[in-house]
Amino acid sequence: MNTALLAIAGSVAMHVAWNLLVRQQGTKTRLLWWALATHCLILAPWGVYALVTQAHWGPQLTTALLVSSLANVAYFVALDRAYHRAPVALVYPIVRSSPILIAIWSMLFFGESFGIGAWLAMLLSVAGLILLASTAWRNDANAALPWALAAALATSAYSLSDKAAAKFLPTLSSVLGFISVGYALSFIAITVLLRREHGRWYPERRAPLLIMLFAGLCIGLAYVLVIHAMRNMPAAVVVAFTNAGIVIAGVLSILMFHERQHWKQRLIGMVVVMLGLIVLAIVQI
User: Fold this and answer.
1) What's the pTM value of the predicted model, to 2 decimals?
2) Count of the separate structural domains present in the chain
3) What is the pLDDT of residue 68?
4) Helices (H), 55-144
5) 146 lies in which domain range?
6) How distant, in Å, are the alpha carbons of 3, 186, 239 from that of 155?
7) Residue 264 pLDDT > 90, yes or no?
8) How many Cβ atoms from other residues are within 10 Å of residue 192's Cβ?
9) What is the CA 138 to chain-centroid distance, rounded?
10) Residue 111 falls in which region: left (phi positive, over 0), alpha (psi -120 to 50) or beta
Protein backbone atom coordinates (compact mmCIF):
# COMPACT_ATOMS: atom_id res chain seq x y z
CA MET A 1 0.00 0.00 0.00
CA ASN A 2 2.82 2.41 0.85
CA THR A 3 4.50 1.86 -2.52
CA ALA A 4 1.16 2.47 -4.24
CA LEU A 5 0.72 5.78 -2.43
CA LEU A 6 4.28 6.81 -3.32
CA ALA A 7 3.61 5.90 -6.95
CA ILE A 8 0.44 8.00 -6.94
CA ALA A 9 2.33 10.94 -5.41
CA GLY A 10 5.00 10.72 -8.11
CA SER A 11 2.37 10.50 -10.81
CA VAL A 12 0.54 13.53 -9.40
CA ALA A 13 3.74 15.58 -9.48
CA MET A 14 4.28 14.70 -13.14
CA HIS A 15 0.64 15.42 -14.00
CA VAL A 16 0.99 18.86 -12.43
CA ALA A 17 4.11 19.59 -14.47
CA TRP A 18 2.44 18.33 -17.65
CA ASN A 19 -0.72 20.35 -17.05
CA LEU A 20 1.21 23.59 -16.49
CA LEU A 21 3.41 23.04 -19.55
CA VAL A 22 0.40 22.53 -21.82
CA ARG A 23 -1.16 25.77 -20.56
CA GLN A 24 2.11 27.66 -21.03
CA GLN A 25 2.84 26.52 -24.59
CA GLY A 26 -0.58 27.15 -26.15
CA THR A 27 -2.48 25.38 -28.92
CA LYS A 28 -0.19 26.19 -31.88
CA THR A 29 2.69 24.29 -30.29
CA ARG A 30 0.56 21.15 -29.79
CA LEU A 31 2.78 20.01 -26.95
CA LEU A 32 0.92 16.70 -26.88
CA TRP A 33 2.46 15.82 -30.27
CA TRP A 34 5.98 16.77 -29.16
CA ALA A 35 5.62 14.87 -25.88
CA LEU A 36 4.49 11.68 -27.61
CA ALA A 37 7.27 12.03 -30.19
CA THR A 38 9.88 12.41 -27.46
CA HIS A 39 8.49 9.43 -25.57
CA CYS A 40 8.60 7.26 -28.69
CA LEU A 41 12.18 8.25 -29.46
CA ILE A 42 13.70 8.05 -25.98
CA LEU A 43 11.67 5.73 -23.77
CA ALA A 44 9.74 3.43 -26.09
CA PRO A 45 12.67 1.34 -27.49
CA TRP A 46 13.86 0.39 -24.01
CA GLY A 47 10.30 -0.24 -22.81
CA VAL A 48 9.22 -2.36 -25.78
CA TYR A 49 12.34 -4.53 -25.43
CA ALA A 50 11.49 -5.08 -21.75
CA LEU A 51 7.87 -5.85 -22.67
CA VAL A 52 8.92 -8.51 -25.17
CA THR A 53 11.53 -10.14 -22.92
CA GLN A 54 10.10 -9.74 -19.41
CA ALA A 55 6.29 -9.88 -19.64
CA HIS A 56 4.34 -13.09 -18.99
CA TRP A 57 2.77 -13.46 -22.41
CA GLY A 58 -0.58 -15.15 -22.97
CA PRO A 59 -4.06 -14.49 -24.39
CA GLN A 60 -5.02 -12.22 -21.49
CA LEU A 61 -2.02 -9.92 -21.83
CA THR A 62 -2.36 -9.84 -25.62
CA THR A 63 -6.04 -8.87 -25.34
CA ALA A 64 -5.28 -6.23 -22.71
CA LEU A 65 -2.52 -4.77 -24.90
CA LEU A 66 -4.88 -4.54 -27.87
CA VAL A 67 -7.67 -2.89 -25.85
CA SER A 68 -5.31 -0.47 -24.10
CA SER A 69 -3.57 0.52 -27.32
CA LEU A 70 -6.80 1.23 -29.20
CA ALA A 71 -8.25 3.09 -26.20
CA ASN A 72 -5.07 5.16 -25.95
CA VAL A 73 -5.39 6.12 -29.62
CA ALA A 74 -9.01 7.16 -29.03
CA TYR A 75 -7.98 9.09 -25.90
CA PHE A 76 -5.15 11.10 -27.45
CA VAL A 77 -7.06 11.84 -30.67
CA ALA A 78 -10.10 13.00 -28.68
CA LEU A 79 -7.90 15.03 -26.31
CA ASP A 80 -6.12 16.67 -29.25
CA ARG A 81 -9.48 17.53 -30.87
CA ALA A 82 -10.85 18.92 -27.61
CA TYR A 83 -7.77 21.06 -26.94
CA HIS A 84 -8.21 22.64 -30.37
CA ARG A 85 -11.73 23.72 -29.50
CA ALA A 86 -11.46 24.81 -25.86
CA PRO A 87 -8.81 25.67 -23.26
CA VAL A 88 -7.12 23.07 -21.07
CA ALA A 89 -8.88 24.51 -18.01
CA LEU A 90 -12.21 23.38 -19.49
CA VAL A 91 -11.24 20.14 -21.21
CA TYR A 92 -8.97 18.43 -18.72
CA PRO A 93 -11.30 18.42 -15.66
CA ILE A 94 -14.04 16.84 -17.81
CA VAL A 95 -11.64 14.22 -19.10
CA ARG A 96 -10.49 13.44 -15.57
CA SER A 97 -14.06 12.80 -14.38
CA SER A 98 -13.61 9.17 -15.50
CA PRO A 99 -13.35 7.47 -12.04
CA ILE A 100 -17.14 7.05 -11.93
CA LEU A 101 -17.10 5.26 -15.29
CA ILE A 102 -14.14 3.14 -14.23
CA ALA A 103 -15.93 2.12 -11.03
CA ILE A 104 -19.08 1.16 -12.99
CA TRP A 105 -17.13 -0.96 -15.50
CA SER A 106 -15.12 -2.54 -12.66
CA MET A 107 -18.32 -3.55 -10.92
CA LEU A 108 -19.99 -4.90 -14.07
CA PHE A 109 -17.07 -6.74 -15.67
CA PHE A 110 -14.66 -7.57 -12.84
CA GLY A 111 -16.99 -7.98 -9.87
CA GLU A 112 -15.33 -5.24 -7.80
CA SER A 113 -17.47 -3.66 -5.13
CA PHE A 114 -17.34 -0.15 -3.67
CA GLY A 115 -19.03 0.96 -0.48
CA ILE A 116 -21.51 3.81 -0.42
CA GLY A 117 -18.82 6.03 1.08
CA ALA A 118 -16.48 5.43 -1.86
CA TRP A 119 -19.26 6.16 -4.39
CA LEU A 120 -20.23 9.39 -2.63
CA ALA A 121 -16.57 10.44 -2.37
CA MET A 122 -15.98 9.88 -6.10
CA LEU A 123 -19.19 11.69 -6.99
CA LEU A 124 -18.15 14.63 -4.80
CA SER A 125 -14.73 14.86 -6.44
CA VAL A 126 -16.28 14.69 -9.92
CA ALA A 127 -18.72 17.45 -8.96
CA GLY A 128 -15.72 19.59 -8.04
CA LEU A 129 -14.10 18.84 -11.41
CA ILE A 130 -17.25 19.88 -13.26
CA LEU A 131 -17.36 23.10 -11.24
CA LEU A 132 -13.74 23.75 -12.23
CA ALA A 133 -14.53 23.14 -15.89
CA SER A 134 -17.52 25.48 -15.78
CA THR A 135 -15.28 28.45 -14.91
CA ALA A 136 -13.63 28.19 -18.34
CA TRP A 137 -16.83 27.67 -20.30
CA ARG A 138 -17.35 29.81 -23.38
CA ASN A 139 -20.12 29.85 -25.98
CA ASP A 140 -17.80 28.32 -28.58
CA ALA A 141 -16.75 25.51 -26.23
CA ASN A 142 -19.77 23.33 -27.04
CA ALA A 143 -17.83 21.71 -29.87
CA ALA A 144 -15.18 20.50 -27.43
CA LEU A 145 -17.57 18.77 -25.03
CA PRO A 146 -18.21 15.59 -27.10
CA TRP A 147 -14.45 15.15 -27.59
CA ALA A 148 -13.74 15.65 -23.88
CA LEU A 149 -16.40 13.10 -22.95
CA ALA A 150 -15.00 10.68 -25.53
CA ALA A 151 -11.56 11.07 -23.95
CA ALA A 152 -13.08 10.32 -20.53
CA LEU A 153 -14.72 7.18 -21.91
CA ALA A 154 -11.44 6.07 -23.49
CA THR A 155 -9.69 6.70 -20.15
CA SER A 156 -12.10 4.33 -18.43
CA ALA A 157 -11.44 1.67 -21.07
CA TYR A 158 -7.65 1.72 -20.95
CA SER A 159 -7.61 2.04 -17.15
CA LEU A 160 -9.43 -1.27 -16.78
CA SER A 161 -7.34 -3.07 -19.40
CA ASP A 162 -4.18 -1.69 -17.81
CA LYS A 163 -5.35 -2.98 -14.42
CA ALA A 164 -5.94 -6.41 -15.97
CA ALA A 165 -2.50 -6.38 -17.60
CA ALA A 166 -0.58 -5.31 -14.49
CA LYS A 167 -0.29 -8.84 -13.06
CA PHE A 168 1.46 -10.01 -16.25
CA LEU A 169 3.98 -7.15 -16.19
CA PRO A 170 6.54 -7.97 -13.48
CA THR A 171 8.79 -4.90 -13.89
CA LEU A 172 8.33 -1.17 -14.34
CA SER A 173 10.26 -1.47 -17.60
CA SER A 174 7.71 -3.93 -18.98
CA VAL A 175 4.91 -1.58 -17.89
CA LEU A 176 6.68 1.20 -19.78
CA GLY A 177 6.76 -0.97 -22.89
CA PHE A 178 3.08 -1.81 -22.50
CA ILE A 179 2.00 1.83 -22.58
CA SER A 180 4.59 2.71 -25.25
CA VAL A 181 2.77 0.55 -27.81
CA GLY A 182 -0.38 2.61 -27.34
CA TYR A 183 1.57 5.86 -27.31
CA ALA A 184 3.29 5.00 -30.60
CA LEU A 185 -0.04 4.25 -32.28
CA SER A 186 -1.49 7.44 -30.83
CA PHE A 187 1.42 9.48 -32.19
CA ILE A 188 0.86 8.03 -35.66
CA ALA A 189 -2.88 8.80 -35.50
CA ILE A 190 -2.36 12.40 -34.37
CA THR A 191 0.30 12.93 -37.05
CA VAL A 192 -2.03 11.65 -39.78
CA LEU A 193 -4.76 14.01 -38.55
CA LEU A 194 -2.30 16.89 -38.52
CA ARG A 195 -1.27 16.11 -42.09
CA ARG A 196 -4.86 15.86 -43.31
CA GLU A 197 -5.98 19.10 -41.67
CA HIS A 198 -2.95 21.34 -42.11
CA GLY A 199 -0.79 19.65 -44.73
CA ARG A 200 2.07 19.32 -42.22
CA TRP A 201 3.71 16.31 -40.60
CA TYR A 202 4.54 18.32 -37.47
CA PRO A 203 2.99 21.25 -35.55
CA GLU A 204 3.28 24.84 -36.69
CA ARG A 205 5.37 25.84 -33.69
CA ARG A 206 8.21 23.78 -32.19
CA ALA A 207 8.37 23.38 -28.44
CA PRO A 208 11.70 24.23 -26.76
CA LEU A 209 13.98 21.20 -26.49
CA LEU A 210 14.05 21.03 -22.69
CA ILE A 211 10.26 21.30 -22.52
CA MET A 212 9.92 18.53 -25.10
CA LEU A 213 12.23 16.27 -23.09
CA PHE A 214 10.52 17.02 -19.80
CA ALA A 215 7.02 16.60 -21.26
CA GLY A 216 8.02 13.31 -22.90
CA LEU A 217 9.32 11.96 -19.60
CA CYS A 218 6.23 13.10 -17.69
CA ILE A 219 3.65 11.76 -20.12
CA GLY A 220 5.24 8.31 -20.08
CA LEU A 221 6.57 7.77 -16.58
CA ALA A 222 3.51 9.25 -14.83
CA TYR A 223 1.30 6.50 -16.17
CA VAL A 224 3.85 3.80 -15.43
CA LEU A 225 3.45 4.79 -11.78
CA VAL A 226 -0.34 4.76 -12.10
CA ILE A 227 -0.34 1.17 -13.39
CA HIS A 228 2.10 0.19 -10.64
CA ALA A 229 -0.32 1.60 -8.05
CA MET A 230 -3.15 -0.40 -9.62
CA ARG A 231 -1.44 -3.60 -8.48
CA ASN A 232 -2.64 -2.87 -4.93
CA MET A 233 -5.64 -0.55 -5.39
CA PRO A 234 -8.80 -0.50 -7.52
CA ALA A 235 -8.28 1.36 -10.79
CA ALA A 236 -11.08 3.84 -10.06
CA VAL A 237 -9.51 4.78 -6.73
CA VAL A 238 -6.04 5.26 -8.22
CA VAL A 239 -7.32 7.46 -11.05
CA ALA A 240 -9.41 9.48 -8.60
CA PHE A 241 -6.39 10.14 -6.37
CA THR A 242 -4.32 11.34 -9.33
CA ASN A 243 -6.89 14.12 -9.78
CA ALA A 244 -5.21 15.85 -6.85
CA GLY A 245 -2.79 17.03 -9.52
CA ILE A 246 -5.51 19.19 -11.06
CA VAL A 247 -6.03 20.92 -7.74
CA ILE A 248 -2.30 21.55 -7.24
CA ALA A 249 -1.96 22.84 -10.80
CA GLY A 250 -4.98 25.10 -10.25
CA VAL A 251 -3.52 26.61 -7.09
CA LEU A 252 -0.17 27.17 -8.80
CA SER A 253 -1.84 28.82 -11.79
CA ILE A 254 -3.52 31.32 -9.44
CA LEU A 255 -0.44 32.02 -7.32
CA MET A 256 2.38 31.79 -9.89
CA PHE A 257 0.74 32.68 -13.20
CA HIS A 258 -1.78 35.15 -11.75
CA GLU A 259 -4.74 33.50 -13.49
CA ARG A 260 -7.28 35.30 -11.34
CA GLN A 261 -10.35 35.06 -13.57
CA HIS A 262 -13.18 33.30 -11.67
CA TRP A 263 -10.63 32.42 -9.02
CA LYS A 264 -13.19 32.19 -6.20
CA GLN A 265 -15.35 29.71 -8.08
CA ARG A 266 -12.27 27.76 -9.12
CA LEU A 267 -11.10 27.66 -5.52
CA ILE A 268 -14.47 26.29 -4.41
CA GLY A 269 -14.24 23.62 -7.10
CA MET A 270 -10.76 22.63 -5.93
CA VAL A 271 -11.91 22.44 -2.32
CA VAL A 272 -14.79 20.16 -3.36
CA VAL A 273 -12.41 17.89 -5.29
CA MET A 274 -10.06 17.61 -2.32
CA LEU A 275 -12.92 16.95 0.11
CA GLY A 276 -14.01 14.07 -2.09
CA LEU A 277 -10.47 12.67 -2.22
CA ILE A 278 -10.04 13.01 1.55
CA VAL A 279 -13.29 11.10 2.14
CA LEU A 280 -12.18 8.48 -0.41
CA ALA A 281 -8.88 8.08 1.43
CA ILE A 282 -10.68 7.63 4.74
CA VAL A 283 -13.06 4.95 3.49
CA GLN A 284 -10.63 3.17 1.15
CA ILE A 285 -7.18 3.15 2.77
Assistant:
1) 0.88
2) 1
3) 95
4) 59-83, 88-95, 99-110, 116-134
5) 2-284
6) 23, 13, 9
7) no
8) 12
9) 23
10) left
